[in-house]
Amino acid sequence: MESEARSRRLVSTGSPFERQAGYSRAVALGNICEVSGTTGYDYRTMTMPEDVGEQTENALATIEAALREAGFAMSDIVRVRYIVTDVRFADAVFAVTGRWFGEIRPAATMIVAGLIRPEMKVEIEASALRA
Fold first, then answer.
1. Taking the complete model, does pTM exceed 0.90, yes or no?
2. Which of 20, 28, 49, 114 could form a disulfide with 70 if both were Cys (CB 3.0 to 4.6 A apart)?
3. Domain spanning 2-129 has what CATH number?
4. According to the model, what pLDDT value does residue 2 have?
C-alpha cells in the first residue's frame, strides 16, 4: 500500500480554483487517472468564452494537457461525464465531443444541472485507464 501512495501523482493546471477548493485537476495512481470536472476557462487568460462549443473545446484541451502530464492520452479515456446547464446545449457539445472522441468512444453520460458560476455552461470529467 505504501508504494501505491508514492506513485500517486497530482496534476494541476495552475488554476486558482484548485488551491481554493482543495482539489487537483487530475490524480493518477498506477494505470488509472481521474480528471476532475473541467469547465471551459482558458487558464492562460482566465477568461471564459460565451459560446458553449468553445467552452467544450477549452475543457477538452485542459483535460488532454492534464492527462499528458500524468503520462496518459485521450485514447486512454474509458468514461466521460458531461454536465450542461441547459438541455439546448447538448447538440453543440456533442459536435465538439464527437470530433474528440469519435474513434475513442468512451462510455458517456450527460447531465443537465446548475454549475457554480453563471458563465459556466459545460463541465466535463473523465476517467482514463492505461492498459
1. yes
2. 28
3. 3.30.1330.40
4. 46
Q: Where are the alpha helices (DSSP H) in the chain?
A: 2-6, 16-21, 52-69, 90-101
Give yes or no for a contact between 46 and 37, defined as CB atoms under 8 angstroms apart: no
Cell digits for 103? 474513434
| Average pLDDT per consecutive 10 residues, the chain (131 residues; last block may be shorter) | 67 85 94 97 90 98 97 98 98 98 97 96 98 84
Distance CA 90, CA 5 (A): 38
C-alpha cell at 65: 494537457
Domain range annotation of the chain: 2-129
**Total residue length of the chain:** 131
Angle between helices 90-101 and 52-69 (to 10 degrees): 30
Number of H helices, E strands in the chain: 4, 6
Euclidean distance between CA atoms 12 and 51, whole angstroms: 25
